[in-house]
Amino acid sequence: MTVIHALDTGFLALEDADPRLSLGIGAVAIIAGRPPDRDRFASTLAARVDRMPRLRDRLSTTWLELRAPTWEPDPRFDVAHHIRWTALPAPADLPQLYELVAADIAERLDRDHPLWQCTVVERVGADSWAVIVKAHHVLLDGISGIELFDALSDRAPAPAAPPQPPARRASVLRMLELPLRIPRAVWSSAQTLLPVLYAAAAPGGRTSLSGPVGHARRYAVARTTMSRVRGIAARFDVTVNDVAVAAVAGAYRAALLARHEDPGANPIRVVIPISTRTADAPALGNQVSAMLPELPVDRSSAIRRLRAVHERIAAHRGRGEAAAEQNLLGLADRLPYPLVAWAFRMASRYPQHRIAALATNVPGPAGPLTFQGGEVREILPYIPLGMRLRTTIAILSYAGHLVFGVTGDFDTAPDVERIAAAIEAEIAELDRLHDRSDETTS
User: Fold this and answer.
1) 439: CB partners within 8 A, 6+ apart
2) Rounded to an integer, what distance in angstroms lies between the CA atom of residue 442 and that of residue 301?
3) Which family does the record claim for this protein (predicted)?
4) What total number of domains does the chain contain?
5) Which of 110, 129, 152 is the last residue of a domain?
6) Which of 136, 190, 307, 329 is most buried, taking the most CB atoms under 10 A from its CB?
7) What pLDDT does residue 143 have?
8) What are the residues facing 220 on neighbouring strands?
């Protein structure tokens, strides 16, 4: 029996606070050939679930929820409960697949059972099929989501690391130091995070990028190659992540202009999750913090947006905001569960206007995978909506390609396809600009 952590508590509380939200993370694999028969698929999947025992666990709660939920084995575990089969109507093309993915994003997972499922799509195009692997955010983050897909694929499992002896003396010393460490950690974290929290929560002008959302979702995809993005990064001495975030900034600028809104009228911030996963971290679970840099949507030049993204992300990393947030989450683990859950629920109801989007960049498998005997041609990521954000963007690299999965609220973000197209256009524009002489002013 394992007690969930404060951040996991937050994901459950956010979902409980708004019946229109479903906090499932997903990956859509498009696979060559035809799917195996149902019995073979189920038996193969059942064997691979054993690679991650947590996939057999369900959440257990107490009456009145006086303590945090815990993971415990599901006594009725049956892999068949987690497999669905469906078919797209003719012509079974990508737009129809995206509609199915949007419906999958909107549907909540059953908390009476382990919080994951596989949906098999029997045909996509002329010679492919697909599988949607979905798990609740309380079970995993972006990195462990890819590890989950990797474990369910045909790749042989990595050998288990040898068990490490418990560091009893170090644990005792840490307990004795708590009365001194906690006040120092709170003060240090508060000094780092308070300016950012104020900037995010302070009253500001409204944009159509945030606000109440409905039940239904939309989904669209932007594609490019890693070689193209790495070339841009090398040319302008920035990181691959900087290029991806700059493409997101350009897309949101285009969206605001198309919605007849002034991109320079109000500063907007983007949540960028930062992995805090260590080499010895468990395969599943959340090991993540975040930064809240401003998106340079007011810059009319693609290069200036890229440079601003690079400078702002570097500044946020230099201030140690992600580490400070992780420290506060660690301290929250020591607080009573009802208090932590209440704090997250209250945060979900706060009418913030400065945070406009969430963009997460996850490195996927560098080489090609196979799944149930077929070559995985493409992996499309998706993440849910939450915290009044009307769009989110999941960025995933796989086998030399970089894919942006754009999730949008059906009613308030009808232009997710335009946002995806603008991401591709921004990368193409940066690729066209070969040197500083091509730069325009803003």
Assistant:
1) 301, 303, 304, 433
2) 6
3) Belongs to the long-chain O-acyltransferase family.
4) 2
5) 152
6) 136
7) 59
8) 406
Residue 239 structure tokens = 């990181």
Same domain, 131 and 11: yes
Residue 137 annotated to the active site: yes
Whether the CA torsion 59, 64, 68, 70 is positive or negative: it is negative
Closest residue by Cα to residue 393 from 281, 255, 301: 255
Can you point out the beta strands (E) in 82-143? 83-86, 116-124, 128-136
Given the residues 5, 113, 137, 353, the one annotated as active site: 137
CB 405, CB 391: distance < 8 Å: no
Torsion of CA 289, 291, 297, 302, to 10 degrees: -90
Same domain? 21 vs 133: yes
For residue 223, the tally of other CB atoms under 10 A from its CB is 14
DSSP 3-state percent helix, strand, coil across the chain (nearest 5): 40, 25, 35
Question: Cα separations (Å) of 141 from 34, 55, 104, 331, 410?
Answer: 30, 14, 18, 20, 24
> In the structure, what pLDDT confidence band is assigned to residue 380 with cuts at 50, 70 and 90?
very high
Q: What average pLDDT does the chain have?
A: 78
Domain boundary residue, one of 96, 130, 152: 152
DSSP single-letter state for residue 108: P
Q: Are residues 213 and 121 in the same domain?
A: no
Residue 411 backbone zone (phi > 0: left; psi -120 to 50: alpha; other: beta): alpha
On the question of pLDDT at 341 being above 60, the answer is no
Asked if 101 and 382 touch (Cβ cutoff 8 Å), the reply is: yes
Domain containing residue 409: 185-364+386-435
CA 408 to chain centre: 14
171 in any annotated domain? no
Residue 370 within any structural domain of the chain: no
pTM for the model:
0.81
Specify the CATH number for the domain of residue 309: 3.30.559.30
